[in-house]
Prior knowledge:
It is a single chain. The protein has 3 domains: 2-62, SH3 type barrels (Roll); 65-125, CATH 2.40.50.140; 129-185, CATH 2.40.50.140. The chain is an all-beta fold. The chain is built from no helices and 16 strands. The N and C termini lie far apart (53 Å). The chain has strands at 2-3, 12-15, 18-28, 36-43, 49-55, 59-62, 65-76, 79-84, 90-93, 109-115, 121-125, 129-137, 150-155, 160-164, 172-176, 181-185. A 6-stranded antiparallel beta sheet has the order 1-6-2-3-4-5, with no helix packed on it. The protein has a 5-stranded antiparallel beta sheet with strand order 9-8-7-10-11, with no helix packed on it. The protein has a 5-stranded antiparallel beta sheet with strand order 14-13-12-15-16, with no helix packed on it.
Amino acid sequence: MANTSEIRNGLCINYNNDVFSVVQFQHVKPGKGAAFVRTKLKSLTSGKVIDNTFPASHKIDIVRVERKKYQFLYKDDMGYNFMDNETYEQITIDPKLIDNPGLMKEGSDVEVLMHAGEGRPLTVDMPQYVQLKITYTEPGVKGDTATNAQKPATVETGAEIRVPLFINEGDIVKIETSTGSYVERVKQ
């Protein structure tokens, strides 16, 4: 058991029978009264973000986690299948543990956060940006680039995103994985 002075961003703790990661924290020492720590915690099982305040002397249960590199192999009925880059062992991960799983291309590397004590995956961290090819989109109208209008487009993984009107089939685009939004067209 540790106390609240050890809270930092990225720390994983047991709280309310769930594993949470500290997204944001602030130590507060008011002029009158006891100090406390205000936090935003993200559940690693459901993805829900909650606000919580811990008194300064509160004991917290830190969870030991390991970050391991895995390669995405394929998707089947059981979930998403990954291979450990060091031991070549394969694991299957439930899609709800992955943010925007439709943006993963076969062969891409991800980081899996594993519960060190239980050996089970907690969450999958994709790279911040991915580059994917547009396989289908309606053609843009020439000269209609003055507005920030967007249209739907399908990328090579099958996911649908919104892109500006000037993007055509065959273009490669950079996509932010946390939001699934278009960033820029990649020069070829």
